Amino acid sequence: MFPETFVEKHLAVSKFDGVVFDPYCGRGTTIFESLIRERESAGCDVHAVAYCVAAAKSDPPAHSDVLERLSNLERESRSYTAAEDDHELAEFFQVCFARPTYYQVRFLRERLAWRTDRTDRFVAALCLGALHGESHRSPNYFSNRMPRTISTKPAYSVRWWREHGCEPPAREVFSILRRMNDYRFRTRPPDARGEVALADARDAASSFPHLAEKVTDVITSPPYIDTTNYREDQWLRLWFLGEEATTRHRSGDGRHCNLERYKSFLTESWAGIAPLLAPEVRIVVRIGGRRLAFDEARTALWDSLESGTKRCVELADSGVSSLVGRSQANAFRGARPSPTVEHDFCFLLR
Ligand SMILES: C[S@@+](CC[C@H](N)C(=O)[O-])C[C@H]1O[C@@H](n2cnc3c(N)ncnc32)[C@H](O)[C@@H]1O
């Protein structure tokens, strides 16, 4: 996630007031911060977890609707019997969750209509936030001790828990969800609603035909090159959403490793949002990678913007770079500090 202040800073200096769009919206930081500042906003992401969280934040139900839904679900869950466990993951689930917790998780996994129902999507997003984390420090996680930011691999997790004598905590899922719901509504959500699509940036325009030529600000961060694989790193949350949960690295599974192919991907993404862009647009991009030099990043963005949008592109500021610090996930793995570098650029398109 990029920080809220990143979006705040760029909205404050923009002279435009059209729609703010994020084609790789992740957890929806751009959309949510824009709504707080009373700007119309929308975005998309291909990742189900990102979509669920971003859409829940941008278009929340009423607090009371969530409470009512939780009461009904809790009542139904008492008569739920889980089907046989998937053989490959059975051992992992036995050590990850206490049995009653696991059955509640399985029940919600089967029952929540997160794609189509706003209240269910919000409950699913609460579950995704509580599904795993540092449960030895907080009573609000369902799982055995795990990083919050990434789902560690099943075999590695089981080994780690056994070596460290970690038992799954007895957690009451519905009580945690009620607490998290109260916490989320402590600050009033923005009155304006944002739109989020579960879609590829390369097809973004077809998800938002009503926004044609209305976008004046793009504030975004494409998937980083040579770093994470979102599908693999979030496999347990994807499992919860009933999506394909890839727990092993495979070639061609979405990680960007080749700079030339990455540039083509960026070009196709800009082409995908081109029909949404107003005659003048400000495009702010945070781009990163393990071996992505500043000049290389600027050229890749500049060239891809020109060929993808067929517009005249100029650099609005000279850009800045920063080194990404030690992440929570790496600390858990005992890895050395991540060498990932981030570069920020702002372009003007006419
Ligand atoms: C660096 S993250 C963006 C994080 C976001 N700025 C936030 O604050 O949460 C990049 C995002 O791009 C998404 N992504 C990867 N390929 C995509 C594609 N083809 N179309 C749309 N989104 C994509 C990933 O799922 C990930 O959420």
Structural write-up:
The chain is of the alpha/beta class. The protein contains 15 helices and eight strands. Strands 1, 2, 3, 4, 5, 6, 7 and 8 form an eight-stranded mixed sheet that branches. Helix 1 crosses helix 2. It is globular. The site of S-adenosylmethionine has 19 residues, from strand 2.
The gist of it:
This protein has two domains: 4-48 and 194-229 and 252-349, Rossmann fold, CATH 3.40.50.150; 63-184, no CATH class. With 350 residues, the chain is α/β, with parallel strands linked by helices.
Write the SSE topology:
Elements: H1 4-13, E1 19-22, H2 29-36, E2 41-45, H3 48-58, H4 63-77, H5 87-96, H6 99-111, H7 118-130, H8 154-163, H9 173-184, E3 195-198, H10 204-207, E4 215-220, H11 230-233, H12 235-240, H13 259-273, E5 277-289, H14 294-309, E6 313-315, E7 320-323, H15 328-333, E8 341-349
Helix pairs in contact: 1-2, 3-7, 4-7, 4-9, 5-8, 7-9, 13-14
Strand content: 5-15%
According to CATH, the fold-level topology of the largest domain is Rossmann fold
At CATH's second level, what is the architecture of the largest domain? 3-Layer(aba) Sandwich
Computed CA radius of gyration, to the nearest angstrom:
21 Å
What is the overall silhouette?
globular
The residue fraction in helices comes out at 40-55%
Name the CATH class of the largest domain. Answer: Alpha Beta
Average pLDDT score: 91
CATH homologous superfamily (4th level) name of the largest domain? Vaccinia Virus protein VP39
Which class best fits the helix and strand makeup?
alpha/beta
| Count of all domains | 2
* Helical run tally: 15
The stretches of 5 or more residues where confidence is low (pLDDT under 50) are: 249-253, 326-335
